[in-house]
Amino acid sequence: MAGRSADWLAHLLGVQGVGGSNPPAPTSLGQKSIKKAYYMRKIKVGIIGFGTIGAAVAKALMSRRQFLKEKSGLDISVVKICDKELRKKRPVKVPRKVLTGSISRVLYDPEIDIVVELMGGLIPAKDVVLEALRQGKHVVTANKALLSDSGSDIFKLANALDLCVGFEASVGGGIPIIRALKEGFVADRIDLVYGIINGTSNFILSKMAEEKLAFKDALALAQANGYAERDPRLDISGGDSCHKLSILALLGFGIAVKPDEIYTEGITGIEPSDIQFAREYGYAIKLLAIAKRSGRSVELRVHPTLIPHKHLLSDVSGVYNAIFVKGDLVGENLFYGRGAGGEPTSSAVVSDIVSIAKNMSDDYKSADYVTFRKDVDRVKKIEDVSMKYYLRFSAVDKPGVLAKISGILAKYSISIASVNQVQRKASSIVPVIIMTHEARERDMRAALKEIDRLSVIKKKTVRIRVEG
Amino acid sequence: MAGRSADWLAHLLGVQGVGGSNPPAPTSLGQKSIKKAYYMRKIKVGIIGFGTIGAAVAKALMSRRQFLKEKSGLDISVVKICDKELRKKRPVKVPRKVLTGSISRVLYDPEIDIVVELMGGLIPAKDVVLEALRQGKHVVTANKALLSDSGSDIFKLANALDLCVGFEASVGGGIPIIRALKEGFVADRIDLVYGIINGTSNFILSKMAEEKLAFKDALALAQANGYAERDPRLDISGGDSCHKLSILALLGFGIAVKPDEIYTEGITGIEPSDIQFAREYGYAIKLLAIAKRSGRSVELRVHPTLIPHKHLLSDVSGVYNAIFVKGDLVGENLFYGRGAGGEPTSSAVVSDIVSIAKNMSDDYKSADYVTFRKDVDRVKKIEDVSMKYYLRFSAVDKPGVLAKISGILAKYSISIASVNQVQRKASSIVPVIIMTHEARERDMRAALKEIDRLSVIKKKTVRIRVEG
Q1: Which of A45, A122, A326, B304 is most deeply packed, by most CB within 10 A?
Q2: Which of B12, B174, B327 sits opposite A330 (nearest CB)?
Q3: In CATH, which superfamily holds the domain spanning A3-176+344-358?
Q4: Which range among A37-41, A318-322, B31-35, B141-145 shows the weakest confidence by mean pLDDT?
Q5: pLDDT confidence of B416, banded at 50, 70, 90?
Q6: Is A44 in the active site?
Q7: B27 interaction partners in chain A (CB closer than 8 Å)
Q8: Residue A191 β-bridge partners
Q9: pLDDT tens-digit profile of A97-111?
């Protein structure tokens, strides 16, 4: 510890230097504690994965090393960056000796305190994370697919070894939603978590609504803007939202839920006409991820959803994310921000590094555990969930059709909130829009199966769930 | 450490018991670390101030002691509650031996780890907090007036003694905004923090807008609902927002700003007619607290503000709070929730207790410092700030008035965005509404002084700033 650095840190903290003539107010804790405040901790980080996010993290850590010293009293340096492609041009310049093509050079470097996993995917990311922990290193990851698939294995090993796994970047980019659920609302029994947690889908739905684009054109626009991958399936299928929801459910309810236990429906079936009809009824269509507790069970679902224009979520457009959390003490809270992109995600990754580093010391490792506590006993089957629905029937234009449809709905105890038979066009098939009151998914499925078999119904009925 | 509690904690953490036959994967850290995970830390809390918030905190800690054990691995107990009035009925039942009328019984109780100050005000709260720190105790407080007045003294002493001061509850009730600024956005250079941070004022303005109430009737309604104090001055004068803004500025920019360095204007001068005119122009009127950095200087101001209806803040009504934070990496984030009330505030207080307790141990105290680092050199004088304005002139109804007004505005380089001379009524005085482009406050003040001296102007001109 250099004298200069100690004095300077003392200055930031607003306290006198160790050798100063004017010590702080007398205290029973005495000089021992006072000296501690002066120790500038040196933290060494190894990054695995040097893509968009890896490069943004490296850039943030390297270009603001001094700034981070001032803000946190920590000297954080990047000592290794590992990637398969070492010759590719990156938006950040790093010393050659930092780069390596070998993951082992990071995992087994005794100097490294924190391993940042930014490779994505399950293989070999899972083994990399587990081995980093076994080597006594803390881990920071943005990998939602990995955490939703193998979160229990990872967190349980970390807990057993008194190590931390930071994953603020795994949900909502730079939005500090993980911290909020894990720490901010620790006193709360969580009743509800829901929101827009996939920027790609939200961008596509926003463009379909604002510019009346067809799905495929909106998708192409998202790709052209870098908001969708070349293979966009994980985003538009709802899979990415599903991964994130399982992470939110772990924090909110203490349960490990595998992705396949979460009902997931993407946005590929949304047509511009449904967006227009919904708007006429006062609703926007958004891809929502929903976790709703009732007693000892919880609903977990991802699907396109009609939400009223007066609801704050309906104004969230483009690649923004927004998440509502309702706790029994804190009430309803909303978090809103950019849900993806290198810089916002790097903000979250660095925040994890700093939080972990602050709690590290040579003599004591204070791990911030993720606990498995089961605030709920079971995930409700989607068939047992009750929701309101928007239904669009493609019916032939003749009398008696509505009577048939409503007769079948009634048979399954589905009660109608409103009906709208859209103005006749040249076509002989007309859209009939029905908004229902709350009905059970199981009943709705059975009713639609029966209705779609009617000779007067010409296409599969469109069914979108309604919230709010 | 009882065996049962250790096993049960091991279960929550998902690891094997100490005596189990199946230890976790082999590791270089070995059994020493593994044993640590089993230690259920016992934390003793003393609460000073047993009002609405004190009672809510006591209730939360006592009624969910087991739940908090499961979520945090901490056994937190309330060992003392101090208040002047011990006989008053409270919404929570506490053992008689816990209650005390003497602050010393809390401050000098060697058993107590964390002192929760919920008395409010400066005297004796400041001495209580400083003495608690001198006694080696961590402090949690919801006292914004105290932190804005004496934050430097308090944080500097805490830093010197390696102790924590938790103050999540001081801004935005249960909204985890302090955590977000201090930890979540630690990597970011903060450009902008602004929002609605006084629920009382927002409730009053919302009622004036929605139900066309006069200020004094809306205030009476707020009081009847328990949303305003019997003496509402601190809230409606903007003083409370000013205190909170100084706390946000400390976290956002590392500077200690006294309340009197923040330009503060309350809502007492807002008339229903201005709310109506603003609405016709597409704006809502909200009391905003604004911290805006440009280079090495920062604007800090609290005043009623016109914000466009399309802006998310315009939809924030009633006692809700909402805060935007813009960081250079993370972009724009919004936090929204209940800004006051016993339960939301207790959620924040308990979250601070848990966070502090997690980082405590017998051999090491990891303090989470508030640093004084001066990301900016100075607070801009309000006179030097440029803003857009809404102006309402009370003019006599005769030709040439507008020419006179606009002539003076032009003289001070204030350019007009739009003019609206409201329809003539029976009265001979008509409102003339002018929206300006950006102009310097100094110029605006000089122009209005000159205009208000004109014989055709019959009342002091109403001037409200515009953002967004």
Answers
A1: A45
A2: B174
A3: NAD(P)-binding Rossmann-like Domain (3.40.50.720)
A4: B31-35
A5: very high
A6: no
A7: 134, 136, 161
A8: none
A9: 999 999 999 999 999
pLDDT, tens digit (0-9, with 9 covering 90-100), for B295-319: 999 999 999 999 999 898 998 999 9
Please state, in angstroms and rounded to a whole number, the distance separating the CA atoms of residues A6 and A11.
9
Q: Which fold has domain B384-466?
A: Alpha-Beta Plaits (3.30.70)
Q: Give CATH for domain B183-338.
A: 3.30.360.10
Q: How far is CA B130 from CA B119, B164, B229, B311, in A?
A: 14, 12, 28, 42
- A361: confidence class by pLDDT, cuts 50, 70, 90: low
Which chain A residue is nearest to residue B181, measuring alpha carbons?
A176
What whole-number distance in Å separates Cα of residue B89 and Cα of residue B94?
A: 11
Please, which residues bridge with residue B425 across strands?
none
Peptide bond into A124 cis (omega under 30): yes
CATH topology for B40-166+344-358? Rossmann fold (3.40.50)
Residue A363: how many CB atoms within 10 A of its CB? Answer: 7
Place B40 in a pLDDT band, splitting at 50, 70 and 90: confident
User: Do the chains contact at A346 and B337, CB–CB below 8 Å?
Assistant: no
Q: What distance lies between CA B146 and its chain's CA centroid?
A: 13
Tell how strand A457-466 and strand A297-308 pair up: parallel
Asked if B359 has any chain A CB less than 8 Å from its own CB, the reply is: yes
Tell me chain B's radius of gyration from C-alpha atoms. 26
Interface of A with B in 393-432 (CB under 8 A): none
Residue A327 near chain B (CB below 8 Å): yes
Confidence of residue A14 (pLDDT cuts 50, 70, 90): confident
The phi-psi region of residue A435 (left if phi > 0; otherwise alpha if psi is between -120 and 50; otherwise beta) is: beta
Residue A22 has pLDDT above 70, yes or no: no
Residue A151 in this model has a pLDDT that exceeds 70: yes
Q: Is residue B346 within 8 Å of B358, Cβ to Cβ?
A: no
A307 touches chain B (CB under 8 A): no
Residue B15, chain A, CB below 8 Å: the answer is yes
Task: Measure the N-to-C terminal CA separation of chain B; round to a whole number of Å.
Answer: 58
CA angle B189, B191, B195 (to 5 degrees): 125
Nearest chain B Cα to A333, which residue? B337
The DSSP code for A413 is T
So what's the ipTM on this one?
A: 0.91
Domain boundaries, chain A: 3-176+344-358, 184-337, 382-466
Q: What is the pLDDT of residue B464?
A: 98
Q: Which residue has the higher pLDDT, A310 or A31?
A: A310
* CB neighbour list of residue A225: distance below 8 Å, 6 or more residues apart: A203
Instruction: Match 């290193």 to its residue by tokens.
Output: A137
Structure confidence by residue, pLDDT tens digits, A154-207: 999 999 998 999 999 999 999 999 999 999 999 999 999 999 999 999 999 999
